[in-house]
Design a protein that fits this description.
Zinc Finger, Delta Prime, domain 3, binds zinc ion, alpha/beta, five-stranded parallel sheet, 5 strands
Length: 332
């Protein structure tokens, strides 16, 4: 999917319908604040709704995807749609808001709505926020502003009070899992979602990172450790260049895959390995004693991940070495 394409995320369906209802009744506010933690798909909802509003051949409450407006949107070149986000720093700068004000003051080029998405709104510095406040105080017709914020509490109260607030929470896993599974991921969708604390887009990111992170390297290292073909230091050095959290999460996926598979081996509902490349490795963990050690190793991975998340500068090499040491002990 291209960067400008939209997808109506299944857990956003009800909020989307609510917005459609408001638009149909002419009750759309001029500014919305979509608040909720990062990774829920707030921007995707804002985008999809924007596409709907601008599309000239809407069908069954959806943008058609092929009219001229939809084509321009898909190419990211629709003149009446603007996405404001930090460019070369972490901040949304005053110049970007000035451009936005100019954009809002001009008449629509394609004759429909003018839409501005600001993401994340808390990235506006004080002067940007104050400039945007003026726009919010004097709304112009046929203009829709959607501020997307991961931390709405950080916004100026005056900005919050001039937007119609919509809050978003983590969706039920039952809605997210089929969506994740349809993304053609290699790992288990429920496992990814669990690791992502039920934040759907984070789970998808983990799946991507997992694919990008050359798992064959990590799996190769884990196999060699089991066969005692390399030492701990050598193993850590081979994986050190990857992001530490990625390494840990990849080990979590691999370990949980093996655990789930081997624990059901004798049962009649054997759980297949999500990653078939792990078959050789999994064969090492068929005894109950080794499975118990593997469980302990998984717990250690959880702790290590917590350490990595909570420390600003963890000693990555040390953590990797300690994990690889424990891993090598699981088969002793
Ligand atoms: Zn269209």
């Amino acid at each position: 999917m291209s960067e400008h394409a939209t997808e109506l995320l299944p857990w956003m369906e009800a909020d989307y319908r609510r917005l459609l209802g408001l638009a149909a009744n002419g009750k759309l506010a001029h500014a919305y604040l979509f608040g909720g933690q990062e990774g829920l798909g707030k921007l995707a909802l804002a985008r999809h709704f924007a596409h709907y509003l601008l599309c000239t051949e809407k069908q069954a409450g959806q943008p058609c995807g092929h009219c001229r407006e939809c084509q321009l949107l898909a190419a990211g070149t629709h003149p009446d749609m603007k996405l404001i986000q930090p460019e070369d720093s972490n901040e949304i700068k005053i110049d970007q808001i000035r451009e936005t004000i100019e954009f809002i003051n001009k008449t629509s080029q394609r004759g429909g709505y003018k839409i501005v998405l600001v993401r994340p709104a808390e990235a506006m510095n004080i002067s940007s926020a104050n400039a945007l406040l003026k726009v919010l105080e004097e709304p112009s017709s046929n203009t829709l502003l959607i501020l997307v914020s991961h931390q709405p509490a950080l916004l100026m109260a005056t900005i919050r009070s001039r937007c119609h607030g919509m809050g978003f929470n983590r969706p039920a896993p039952a809605v997210v899992i089929p969506w994740l599974e349809a993304k053609n991921i290699r790992a288990s969708a429920s496992e990814l979602l669990r690791m992502a604390n039920n934040v759907p887009l984070r789970a998808l990111e983990l799946a991507d990172e997992d694919a990008v992170h050359d798992r064959t390297v990590l799996h190769g290292v884990l196999e060699k450790l089991v066969r005692k073909e390399i030492g701990i230091a050598e193993a850590a050095a081979a994986c050190e260049s990857y992001d530490l959290e990625d390494n840990i999460e990849a080990m979590m996926l691999c370990t949980s895959d093996i655990l789930a598979h081997n624990q059901t081996l004798s049962g009649d509902s054997a759980s297949p390995l999500h990653d078939h490349d792990l078959a050789a490795l999994a064969a090492n963990f068929q005894s109950a004693a080794r499975l118990i050690k593997l469980h302990d190793f998984y717990r250690q991975l959880i702790k290590a991940r917590r350490t990595v998340k909570s420390k600003s500068n963890p000693n990555g090499l040390l953590i990797l070495e300690s994990l690889f040491y424990s891993w090598s002990r699981t088969v002793n």
